[in-house]
Write a structure and sequence with these properties.
The protein is an alpha+beta fold. The protein contains six helices and eight strands; from the N terminus they run ββαααβββαβαββα. The chain has helices at about 20-30, 30-35, 45-55, 100-115, 130-135, 170-180, and strands spanning about 5-10, 10-15, 60-65, 65-80, 85-90, 120-125, 140-155, 155-165. The protein has an eight-stranded mixed β-sheet, with helices on both faces.
Amino acid sequence: MALHVTLEGERVRLEPLEPRHEGLLWQIAQDERIWRWMRVRGHESRERFREWLDSVELGFAQFLDGEPVGHTSYLNVRPGDRVLEIGNTWLHPSAWGTGANVEAKLLLMQHAFEGEGFLRVEFKTDARNERSRAALAALPAQFEGVFRKHMLVRGGERRDSAWYAVIDDDWPEVKANLLRRLGR
């Protein structure tokens, strides 16, 4: 299984996270809006940011038109069940609304479904994160419910998590929609 490979689209490039990416990502991770809904506050210190990056399973540095704009990852990979999650996604606000997230999701799901034979791709977000929930609904990913008090975040706060998924049966429609949104 080769999940941690460079994925490249027309404008977006996802590079497997390496130590050399830390400085690039740290520079663009300083905007508080990035971390509002994340499990940690990665912008508070370089050490905390490094610890967070080190904890990510299969992270990718995300580039848009050659410039670093954020991070995403595969996580909670269960090869035996052919299920994985896409998450830990953040983008610098300058990349919001540019299609960078749409193309990244296309690349990640295309690789999971078509390249590696996964049957289910999951997503979860803070149930209060309306921006993320709207983006997931627009894929379209199927909303599957809210896990109440699912995890501890940001210094002990309890988070309810909204769960979404795309399965292999949905993939052709989702892929066509993403390509349409990207003007292809």
